[in-house]
Structures are given as C-alpha cells and as structure tokens.
Design brief:
24% of the residues lie in helices and 24% in strands. By secondary structure, the protein is α+β, with helices and mostly antiparallel strands. It holds the Pfam family 3D.
C-alpha cells in the first residue's frame, strides 16, 4: 500500500498508505492526438510473471503445528483468511509460488471449519521459506482526525477527491519508441502541453481550490498529512459521527520520506529532544511550525480520497484489512491472501498474518508492513514498529512437492 518510503523509521513517518481501493478513474477531455488513459484510483497489482519467489529459492519450513502462535491469534487470522478467499480464488498468483486451483480445497475447508482455528492452519498448510527467510517489518494504522463534511471555522484543510484533470498520458517529447509501460500521471496546462501534476506545496497553496471536488475538511493539516501517509483513516465530525475515507489516487509525484531528511538534517534523533519515530517527527513539526511546513512539502506526493462504507479500510486485495491480522507484502514474493508467520525481535509482531495489502516501499522478499487497526494503542505500536526477524509463508499442502522442494 500503498507509495511507501524507501527507508523506514517508524511506520507513520516513512511508510505511506498501504491501504488501497479500486473505483473507476476519471475521464477528461484531451487533445485528439494524445494517448491517454484515466488516472487510476490505486496502484494496480503487477501482471503475472514467472515465479519471482522461486528464483530466490524455496525451502521447506518446520511443521505449521510447531510454530508459536496461539488460538486467539489463529482465530483472527482465520477470519481474515475467509474474507480473502473469494479474491484469492479469482486471481492469479503473481509470485508463481502457487496456482489458483491450489487454494480451492483450503478455502472450502475454511468456510465450514468449526474446530480450533489453530488446528485449521496446522492441518491445511505447510510452511515455505523464501530465500534466507530474514524479514523486516514495519507497521501502519488507521488514524482518526477531526474534520467536517462542510467547511466551517476551524476546519479549513480540504480533503480532495480525484480531480478531473488528473490523467495518464505521454509527454510530447517522449518518442514513441520509448513509450513502454504505463504512461505517467499529469495534466494538460493552458497551452495544451502535458505536464507533471501539481505537487504538495502547490496544492497546499491552493492550486486545486476551484477545481478538485472536496469530500471533507480537516481541522489539522499536520494530522491530515500523516493520514495521507497511512492512506486511509476516519474523520470524527463535530456531531461525533465518523466518516471513513480511503485511498482513491495519487498525484504522480515522488514520495519523500521526511523522517530520513529530518534525521540527516539533525532535526530528530540522537542529540535532539525528538526521537526517530512518527511521534518524534510530529513533536518537531508542532514545535517548529514554519520549518515543519517546509519539511512536509519535501514530500511532493499527494493522496486523494473517497468515502468508504466498509467496516474497515480496504487493502490491495479489495477486502477490509483487520488490525493485528492483516499485513502488506510484495506480491512478487508472497501470494496475496496467503497466511504469513512472523517471528520478530518486536514480540508484538509475532504470529500469523494474512497478506491483504501492498505498498510502494514494501518491496522484495520477506519485507512486511503490519496493520494495527485504529486508536491510540495502534498509533503507538505502528509508529514505533521497525523490527527484524524471520518469516515463513503458509501455502496449501502439496505446494512444496509441486516445486520439487523436499
């Protein structure tokens, strides 16, 4: 999910929104000679490719029954696995680790399982190690901020939906022979030239004030900035009602991990009053508002939102992600919807997770981003989560034999 940063120093500051939804993108009028496609509302999952995970080598793990997870952990994972099964059975496995048909019997068993949840996993799965199995995990959460559906005093930060002029197209100066992959996101300026879309500093200065639809107004630009990094969240309105919003699209501009820049500039970290975490970054920005605005604008990326009616934020698998049960992965190495077992230095992250989300910086084998739900505790854990350890992927029995792994 989901524009994640390259270097993680606490989930909230450098790991941007894993959470993803996939509605239709906007249609706009463009010059007839241009080749364009609508701006997407989410980063699509890669098309199937040869088994990336297999290229690193697969090794048999210990028996699932010997792994250290308890019944409560397994119960939450089983509920999330059941929610994943319809999507799991309707898509290909980009990693090449499994075939869609491999999951049919396992999902059927999950639908009717009435015994201990731990027994479900130990009876239906075998453990696979990808590469050396050495894992790194961060965390993300669903923030809650104060806001309003309508503008009013004290609620002045617009929460934009996807603007109608955001499109994908090839700039005129890019030769036809070089137009490979997806066209970049941008807009057509007043001269008809295709240019990069407005960056964060321009949007904060009002570049979209008279054009983009607004679905809500936030009370605090700093809290909204971190909600954008998470990619989804809840807006608590003055009457106490809650509006859930989720990722709808992005402006196509580069994501900058402000925590890294702040640490290098000596704003946070050793020798400062501000720890190297999301909490430390927020404290610095609060204490230094002018410099804080400059720092936030280093991140040119801007996230657009839509209102959600689900009982949780949606992940890249298009099912709600659940606190302490859902994890973001790189789908080139982990089957989306598969259970993942983590054994990390931070014990909070130990146990079973279900791969239901992705993220721009969640790249490579054994790279994970754990989802912690919402509330103060979730914010605290996710903001400080940065842990090494080991990982195993759980796949239907017989997968190892299919790959010739003994």
């Amino acid at each position: 999910m989901r524009l994640r940063a390259v270097i993680i120093i606490g989930a909230g500051l450098l790991a941007s929104a894993c959470v993803r939804i996939v509605p239709e993108g906007p249609q706009v009028a463009v010059p007839p000679t241009a080749t364009t496609t609508p701006a997407p509302s989410a980063t699509p999952l890669p098309a199937p490719v040869p088994a990336t995970a297999g290229l690193l080598g697969l090794a048999a793990g210990p028996s699932v029954g010997s792994l250290a997870f308890d019944e409560a952990d397994a119960t939450g994972a089983l509920a999330s696995f059941r929610e994943s099964c319809p999507k799991l059975l309707a898509r290909g496995d980009v990693s090449g680790m499994t075939r869609t048909a491999d999951w049919s019997a396992t999902c059927a068993a999950a639908a009717t399982w009435r015994g201990p949840a731990r027994d479900f996993f130990s009876s239906q799965f075998e453990a696979v190690q990808v590469g050396d199995g050495r894992a790194f995990a961060t965390g993300y959460f669903e923030p809650e901020i104060a806001g309003s559906r309508t503008p009013r005093p004290g609620y002045e930060q617009p929460v934009y939906a996807i603007p109608g002029d955001l499109v994908r197209a090839w700039p005129a100066d890019v030769p036809e022979a070089e137009r490979t992959g997806r066209a970049p996101l941008g807009r057509y300026d007043e001269t008809g030239a295709f240019v990069p879309y407005f960056e964060r500093a321009e949007i904060m200065a009002g570049a979209l004030a008279d054009s983009a639809p607004v679905i809500a107004w936030a009370a605090d630009p700093v809290e909204f900035f971190f909600l954008q990094i998470q990619g989804s969240g809840m807006i608590r309105q003055p009457d106490g009602t809650v509006m859930r919003i989720g990722y709808a699209g992005q402006n196509g501009r580069e994501y900058t991990a402000i925590g890294r820049s702040m640490r290098e500039a000596g704003m946070i970290g050793d020798g400062t009053p501000y720890p190297t975490s999301m909490q430390g970054i927020i404290a610095y920005i609060r204490a230094n508002p002018d410099k804080g605005r400059e720092v936030m604008n280093l991140n040119k990326s801007w996230i657009f939102f839509r209102e959600l009616t689900t009982d949780g934020p949606l992940g890249a698998l298009e099912v709600p992600v659940r606190g302490r049960s859902s994890v973001a992965v790189d789908p080139n190495y982990v089957t989306m919807g598969a259970p993942v077992f983590l054994d990390m230095e931070r014990n909070e992250a130990d146990g079973l997770w279900i791969a239901q989300d992705t993220g721009g910086a969640i790249k490579g084998a054994n790279r994970f981003d754990t989802f912690w739900g919402n509330g103060a505790e979730a914010r605290e854990i996710a903001g400080a989560m940065s842990s090494s350890g080991r990982a195993l992927i759980l796949v239907p029995r017989g997968t190892l034999a299919f790959h010739g792994v003994k």
